[in-house]
Amino acid sequence: MLNPAVPSCSGTPEPGQPTRRRARGTGWQLKGSTGCSHQLAQSESPGHRHFSCHPGCCPFSIWKLLGITRNVPSILDLGNGSNTLLCVLVSSREEEKVRTLSLKASQQQGEPPLENGFLPYLGCALKFGANPLEFLKEKQKKHGHIFTCHVAGKYIHFLTDPFSYHALMRQGKHLDWKKFHFATSAKAFGHGSIDPAEGNTTENFHQTFIRTLQGNALDALIEAMMENLQYVMLQSRAPKLQSNTWVTEGLYTFCCQVMFESGFLTLFGKEFNSNNDKNLSSKQETERAHILNALENFKEFDKIFPALVAGLPIHLFKSAHSAREKLGEALLHKNLLKRDNLSELVTLRMFLNDTLSTFDDMEKAKTHVAVLWASQANTIPATFWTLFYLLKSPEAMRAATKEVQNVLETAEESISLDGKHISLNRKQLDNMPILDSIIKEAMRLSSASMTFRVAKEDFTLHLENDFYNIRKDDVVALYPQLLHFDPEIYADPLTFKYDRFLNEKGEEKTDFYRNGRKLKYYYMPFGTGIAKCPGRLFAVHEIKQFLALIFSYFEIELVDSNVKCPSLDQSRAGLGILQPSNDIDFRYRMKCL
Ligand code: HEM
């Protein structure tokens, strides 16, 4: 792994003058501000091809440092303590770009201000990757509400004014949201293209998700999840909970196991048939071992997910590759068919895979791995942050437990350990505004999702008071963490306030302001517009169910009540809810009921 002291071309740019620009359609040109416009020298060693400017211009041979070699990727460790990995694959196509490096320029008229960054090909990628929020805040200060960043070969126009967000939604005619999702999914999960235009399938995935995660389908998911959470918390973890003694565990580890196991059972059903089965308990144990094994594979694969999105091939990561294949094996249709209580989502997806696609068995299975990942990767950290903030805030904990007690009482649900499970339906769970506010606040503080749209053609982006030319294939992006941490919208934005999303009546608060104007977009962990997460309602219900059951059955506390809030692991910035950079010890024991 390289740990570069980032080099630059000798000589500094002329003040106020960007040193590079895109010549439409011709790739990159570079000019050192000393006036050099050199041909890049090329040298070959077995398996590698190095490019370098002449020694006086690029003393550290940036090309070599970045490992620009034929089909050999580089991983750059920023060494800034943030665990950030930025991965760049430089293929022969990029080599062509590098070959044409030689000159200078600036943004074209009518385009947003351009930040090229100092690194050829990478542009601003390293700085952006190290801390996107700080980077974008700095550029916002410098350029205003819209600017363009060159990031790893792409031009990304960031809209930072929340009053401009609707411009992105409105101009769907010129902007594509699907291509990026389709390409990312195929790259990360290893199935063939799911873009109907490419002929492997005619399934409309978006419609499948809406149909099976919302409306009536959601009721069934909620019911199954309630049952599974109790099975996992009480029966499956029974050996740990034998006596009335405290169990100490990492909070993230706990949330991860409970949510993964329950969520997996809810979507992919159970191996065992629970009715009148003499060997039930040994079958349950085997099933649990399989799911925990799937969790290990999930974690191994999930670790390198940002690298896959950045374009690195999975073959570089042997154990993650093998983990993804094992997840695929487990979700082969022939194995799913042996399970009871498959969700409507999985049943319908299997049917559509079989009837509308030409995927082979493993590709079909990998489309299920994609669903498994989408259903868990954000939910697990969101559950952790919610419970962590509750444990840190006695006032929030009191309000939340009281709300749950009231709802249980109204529903005439009693809490016991005699095997009768608590049941709360969707309507009852919807009647918990305090939990809603707590979950929202925890996600506001931990979410770093990014909304992307790709320009289908050259067009003019109309914002509130101005307009900008956007070129075909450029990306227009929103980074809502800017909005979530804006002190004008959220006073004291880094502080957890459990009732931030409640109004004076104790109902959901929806009026948030900036510059005295009411905002339409103020909370976006689930994205927005057409591509908004189709599983968002289920996700919030899952977390509420988890909390309601924790409060009902367990006493729970932090091992160190003064423990500091863990920092956000920035390596997943742009992908959703960030994980904590370290786990936090907590303890729990069964209540004496
Ligand atoms: C706290 C939990 C969750 C968060 C924060 C979250 C967030 C997101 C975000 C930001 C997107 C991308 C939206 C965009 O591109 O603009 C997304 C997509 C998606 N999410 Fe979630 N999600 C969560 C839970 C879930 C759950 C539980 C499921 C399913 C059971 C799910 C299923 C999906 C699917 C299938 C997509 C892709 C949609 C498409 O491409 O049509 N998500 N999610």
Describe what is shown at a glance.
The chain is α+β, with helices and mostly antiparallel strands and 593 residues long. The chain has a domain at 188-274 and 281-590: Cytochrome p450 (Orthogonal Bundle).
Number of contiguous helices = 21
What separation lies between the terminal Cα atoms? Answer: 54 Å
Amount of helix: 40-55%
Q: CATH topology of the domain at 188-274 and 281-590, which one?
A: Cytochrome p450
**Which structural category fits the helices and strands?**
alpha+beta
- 3D shape: globular
How large is the share of residues in beta strands?
Answer: 5-15%
Q: So, CATH architecture of the domain at 188-274 and 281-590?
A: Orthogonal Bundle
Average predicted local confidence, pLDDT = 82
CATH superfamily of the domain at 188-274 and 281-590: Cytochrome P450
Low-confidence runs (pLDDT<50, min 5 residues)?
1-105
CATH C-level label of the domain at 188-274 and 281-590:
Mainly Alpha
Strand order of the largest sheet: 5-6-7-14-11-8
* Number of separate strands: 19
From the alpha carbons, calculate the radius of gyration and give it in angstroms: 26 Å
